Amino acid sequence: MVKQKEWEKISELLEDGLSVPKVAEEVGRSAPTIYKLIKTGGPKTSRQRGMKIPKKLKSFDSYLRKRIKKGVSNDEKLLSELKKLGYKGSYSSLNRYLKGTQNSNQNYKPAIRFETRPGEQGQFDWGSFGKIEVNGKVERLYGFVYVLGFSRMMYVEFVIKQNLQTLIQSHINAFNYLGIPQSILYDNIKTVVLRREKL
């Protein structure tokens, strides 16, 4: 049986970008066990004995506890993160859940910002900005967002495609504007990720 502390270590390793097989090797568990823990949201705890968790939030309970423990309690930010993970529930369900956890989270420390040296790292992600009309046709508007880790300087380029050609050209434009760091951190995007592990 996996204890809460071990689950927290597994969650941290996954958050640091390790693959499920590497995490399994690191903690001495099988990969199927790790996949099952991710799917179920970790081991069950007695912390929530009197608190009813909304049905659609049950599988995200462990993730939410981890984020709250790191000092993230903004309901809109958490809702945005959950939607990216597949949450289909409402804002009010999340809000009720967060209010129920407020009293038990008094002693959590605030999140510590991840810092890098100058020129060490840049971060990239796509943003969605609704729809616009281009040559009489309605297109989705995306933002290529590139941020330098140390200075937090940002380059944003608006595009209507998220294909590889656009990605490469946007990188070239960003590098010409802000320079090239030693490494770039990417989110889980189709134009960069070759394969995703099934949960």
UniProtKB/TrEMBL annotation:
<dbReference type="InterPro" id="IPR001584">
    <property type="entry name" value="Integrase_cat-core"/>
</dbReference>
<dbReference type="GO" id="GO:0015074">
    <property type="term" value="P:DNA integration"/>
</dbReference>
<dbReference type="GO" id="GO:0003676">
    <property type="term" value="F:nucleic acid binding"/>
</dbReference>
<protein>
    <recommendedName>
        <fullName>Integrase catalytic domain-containing protein</fullName>
    </recommendedName>
</protein>
<dbReference type="InterPro" id="IPR036397">
    <property type="entry name" value="RNaseH_sf"/>
</dbReference>
<dbReference type="InterPro" id="IPR012337">
    <property type="entry name" value="RNaseH-like_sf"/>
</dbReference>
<feature type="domain" description="Integrase catalytic">
    <location>
        <begin position="114"/>
        <end position="199"/>
    </location>
</feature>
